[in-house]
Amino acid sequence: MSVSQIELAQMQSLPLDMKIRKTVARLSEFYDYYNGDIAVSVSGGIDSRVLFDIARKAYPNIPAVFSNTGVEFKAIVNFVKTLDGVDVVRPEHSFNWVTKNYGWPVVSKKISRFISDCQNPTERNVNVRQLRLTGISQKTNPGKVMNSFKIPKKWLYLIDAPFKISDKCCEVLKKKPLDKYRKETGYKTVTAEMAVESEMREKTYLRTGCNNFHESNPKSMPMGFWTRQDVLEYITVFKISYCKEKYGDILRDPVSNLLFNTGEQRTGCYVCPFGSHLEKCPNRYQRMEGTTEYKVCENLGVWPILDYINVPHSAAQMNKQSIRYTE
To answer: What angle separates helix 16-33 from helix 228-238, to the nearest 10 degrees?
Structure first.
């Protein structure tokens, strides 16, 4: 069921208690539709922690699954172990294998996919490569300008990077293990994805609403209309555990009256450069300096990739300014 921008805004403005009730209602719809054959996807982050709590209160025996990519923060992996009844899946290949066989994830999934198309020319992708370079459709809608499918000028230099670039990392390390889990168990996925997280997730929510029953991989996003404030408020009100080692304390700003957490805003694969160019110093890598994870990044060869896109990765580079990606 599609949702309008106005409807989404209205839902996002609801008080927490109403959001909880609506989330439980959407979850129940999904649960009933598939006769209980659903599983909550747990990442170890605060969003999925809230979903896990809501789901387990509604259905104490609902399955949950955590995809351990092999490059998750140790603190996150340890926190997930404190949650009861969470299945763990792992990828067939490592992050190192992905970068060597497909390429490095840089900037974003979208940009990495576009760059990969141009780095790997074939007779079959001539039209796609032209679309990436010009933004003009060559085949589907000849002559139509489709700038959203074009590589932005500031990232064109990545085509000639001395390393391969690809968007395959998440697919290999996270999605494939979860797909295998779904096929083996028959469970449909429930995630804590929210429309506010990205343009892509907002578009997905507007197209399907909380529950998508009709695609090849049905999925429920019962918190799709929540905001980060809702997540922090839920944790504060219900005093549920979360990975405090990574997310820090949850405090309230005396001026804005808004809640905020003092640690990482997002966790996930700590080696992944996606979005690192947008972070202010100290960025995620600089904050990791001196840790085991930082040493792993060094051993995997992350630093030359970050150097190429002008992202600092040590305290010594704290005042480094962006040059490459400024138009």
So the answer is: 100
User: Does residue 318 register a pLDDT over 90?
Assistant: no
Structure tokens at 36: 């209980």
- The answer to pTM > 0.85 is yes
Strand segments (E) across the chain: 38-42, 64-67, 86-89, 188-190, 211-212, 219-220, 250-252, 259-261
- 223 vs 183: CA distance, rounded Å: 24
When the candidates are 3.40.50.620, 2.60.40.60, 3.40.50.720, 1.10.238.10, the CATH number that belongs to 5-93+170-248 is 3.40.50.620
Q: Which residue has 């003009």 as its token pair?
A: 136
pLDDT band at 65 (very low <50, low <70, confident <90, very high): very high
Enumerate the domain spans of the chain.
5-93+170-248, 106-160, 276-317
